[in-house]
């Protein structure tokens, strides 16, 4: 569970930045080189590479170097980690609101 939490923390930290979310969104359309990705953002290549390294460290993307070209690939399995966590949270809160609704709508049933 602790390792699961650390992985989830890393993914959320990576997704907390709008540039990194835009990179993930762009890679959802298909793999592309770091150079192509960097052209879409108004920053220097070294600054952009910090975002790429953060995404790679979180496991959201992986990079493959072929010659002088580094290509970024989205790891959709890592996004499933976030999706699973959100589904668990949604289920918990739906159960709680259902109990609250029942308590409010049927007060006689809930009195001792």
UniProtKB/TrEMBL annotation:
Q: Where is the signal peptide?
A: none
Q: Where are the transmembrane segments?
A: none
The HTH arsR-type domain is annotated at: 1-94
Q: Name one Pfam family in it.
A: HTH_20
Name this polypeptide is given = Metalloregulator ArsR/SmtB family transcription factor
Source organism per entry reads Streptomyces ortus
């Amino acid at each position: 569970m602790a390792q699961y939490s650390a992985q989830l923390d890393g993914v959320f930290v990576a997704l907390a930045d709008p540039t990194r979310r835009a990179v993930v969104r762009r890679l959802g359309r298909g793999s592309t080189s770091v150079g192509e990705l960097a052209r879409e953002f108004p920053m220097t290549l070294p600054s952009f590479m910090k975002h790429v390294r953060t995404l790679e460290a979180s496991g959201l993307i992986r990079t493959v170097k072929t010659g002088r070209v580094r290509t970024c690939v989205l790891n959709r399995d890592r996004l499933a980690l976030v999706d699973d966590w959100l589904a668990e949270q949604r289920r918990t809160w739906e159960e709680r609101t259902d109990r609250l609704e029942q308590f409010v709508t049927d007060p006689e049933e809930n009195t001792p």
